[in-house]
Description:
Elements: H1 6-49, H2 55-69, H3 73-84, H4 90-117, H5 122-153, H6 166-186, H7 189-210, H8 218-227, H9 231-245, H10 248-253, H11 255-260, H12 266-279, H13 282-290, H14 294-317, H15 319-333, H16 337-356
Helix pairs in contact: 1-3, 1-6, 1-7, 2-3, 2-4, 2-16, 3-4, 3-7, 3-13, 4-5, 4-14, 5-12, 5-14, 5-15, 9-12, 12-14, 13-14
Amino acid sequence: xxxxxxxxxxxxxxxxxxxxxxxxxxxxxxxxxxxxxxxxxxxxxxxxxxxxxxxxxxxxxxxxxxxxxxxxxxxxxxxxxxxxxxxxxxxxxxxxxxxxxxxxxxxxxxxxxxxxxxxxxxxxxxxxxxxxxxxxxxxxxxxxxxxxxxxxxxxxxxxxxxxxxxxxxxxxxxxxxxxxxxxxxxxxxxxxxxxxxxxxxxxxxxxxxxxxxxxxxxxxxxxxxxxxxxxxxxxxxxxxxxxxxxxxxxxxxxxxxxxxxxxxxxxxxxxxxxxxxxxxxxxxxxxxxxxxxxxxxxxxxxxxxxxxxxxxxxxxxxxxxxxxxxxxxxxxxxxxxxxxxxxxxxxxxxxxxxxxxx
Length: 358
């Protein structure tokens, strides 16, 4: 029998994860090219049928779209391809990306509900999901007018240097051009777009599989509450984990089991979520660059800058008041099933109303 040394096993595991990561990068680019090609065929449907014609509609559409695919990143990428195809304008795409983050926060709440069904304590399980939703809403909604100003003022128009170089573009065309041309020749636009959307969802799942597994000991967990008592530290941790993993579902999903087991207090969650909500746009920024449209990258930069501005104001000037208010509201909301029921209904009615308002 052949025995593998621990280091040999580690190398095999790392090589496997590296291979998955490299493959997922190629699949990510291919998915974007499919979505970009398919979005052109969907432009009349978006403009004329759904009538997503202003930022309010875009906010509702992105919100509901994220519910449908149970993720925010594919919707954010889709908003950029819709913009690139001329289906929506720059500010509507910006609002759609914001809506995608609001919709994606529902995933953490659903994860908390699963923990409740598995017999865990209800308040601890639901608090994380509710905090994720409410913190995201109270940061992203005030950031909307700031981002709108940045886009309308033209302050970010000088980002043409962010375009990929000509050699990179030509390599991408050589590798990914033939399958895209073949799809455009034989398939309708909606089928190409849906195929690209399916591929990009698969890509983000592969990203998650490529991440190293964190196995922390009980002693490591015991040290966590002592480290995470300062908002700036927790904010930086949320930002850093999401930046490294390129997956806000991973960084926020970790909070549910950790808070249920008492390793992270509710007071530590708010700045952590705020940090996650900034670096979650790294993959969307990459998508904007790969579209070879400087204005698309400008949309993501406006999103990130506006969130940084709002989060910075909160952290520097009235974080304790903000945190206490959010926590009190979450505890009040989770006290009765009736309040939670109304809250869940509103989570669907509000984006629907935003989508149909004229």
